[in-house]
Amino acid sequence: MNSRSLLRSSISRRLLRPVADLIDQRIERQLRSSTRNAVTQGAQGSPEAERLARDVELLKHGQLTFELLCGPRGRGISRMVAEAPLERLYAEVTELSGDRDAAVRNVSAAFRLLVALESLGVGRIAGGTMNICGKLGAIPLLDPPNDEILEIGTLYGMFSAGLVRMMERDGRSPNLTIVDPFAGVQLQPGTDERPDPTGTPVDEHAVRTNLGLAGPAGAAARIQQGFSEDPETRAAVSDRRYGVIVVDGDHSAKGVAQDLEWAEEIAAPGGIVVLDDYGDPNWPGIGDALDDHLKGETRFTYLGKAARSAYLRAS
Questions:
Q1: Treating both helix axes as pointing N-terminal to C-terminal, what angle do 83-97 and 100-120 enclose, rounded to 10 degrees?
Q2: Measured between alpha carbons, how far is 270 from 164 in angstroms, rounded to an integer?
Q3: 298 — phi, psi (to 5°)?
Q4: Nearest C-alpha neighbor of 307 from the set 260, 275, 284, 285
Q5: Angle between the N-to-C axes of helices 158-169 and 204-211, in degrees from 0 to 180, rounded to the nearest 10
Q6: Cβ contacts of residue 52 below 8 Å, gap of 6+?
Q7: How many other CB atoms are there within 10 angstroms of residue 239's CB atom?
Q8: What is the DSSP letter of 67?
């Protein structure tokens, strides 16, 4: 059996190749030993060899089943987890929250929630597994000052559904607002417009379907179609101060700068601002925009980062 066939992504293969090689070597040694024993005993198909063959076949079936649940089929990205990135995420969320036990508990719960939502919902949650689990796990632990949440850029609404559920697990009563253009595809300046790998159109219907998975709070979410820089869009949802603002819209330096300027106006005192894909080499404009913003007059204090998301707190 080749254990490496379980993982499709190049990153996962590099991370887990030593473990896969070790498993392959042990199985090969056991098979050779069983074969020698069978020959020595003069018995083709000895009970030991047959038992080992059955065990290997069961393991292959289990791997295939797990791959269907967490592998890239159907969503275009693997949800497999490796020990080193997971431990690093635990440490990063611990540094943000100051509570190791809570960090491990929330990140673990967030992973289970991620798999469940993508299994039941339509489309997918944008981003890598550690990035998503980091945001879902860290935000409740940072104790936002109120339960008003604004997500700028939602794709399929599945992350917001997960955040609602994680906040509720913490005893909160989240009230969600979403701003997104719903252009039918995921829009980003400088990239080609192409269908999502899941095959699901990016539209409000898909978002509403996924928000329903979060129960009454998800179903009651306020959705404003439009770009976050449009005055009409801003006016429609600037009627309150938000305890959590997730900035995940236009990834260009200009777009991020505009969203941060808006967040300055609508973040509640003590509010948490999460800047997604911070430090991602594919989106250098995000880091540039945040660095420039923090050099000027601002209400925001940089708290730290976890799995390519930056966390700020408003004064």
A1: 120
A2: 19
A3: -150, 155
A4: 275
A5: 20
A6: 30, 31, 34
A7: 9
A8: H
pLDDT given at position 15: 46
pLDDT of res. 22: 56
- Mean per-residue pLDDT, 233-253: 97
d(CA 77, CA 128): 8
Q: How far apart are CA 81 and CA 22, in angstroms?
A: 18
pLDDT at 304 over 70: yes
Of 84, 73, 303, 109, nearest to 198 by C-alpha is: 73
Cα separation, 96 vs 134, in Å, equals: 11
Residue 202 per-residue DSSP state: B
Residue with the two structure tokens 């290997």? 56
Higher-scoring residue by pLDDT: 42, 245: 245
C-alpha 297/C-alpha 274 separation (Å) is 19
pLDDT band at 99; cut points 50, 70, 90 = very high
| Interatomic CA distance for residues 30 and 21, integer angstroms | 14
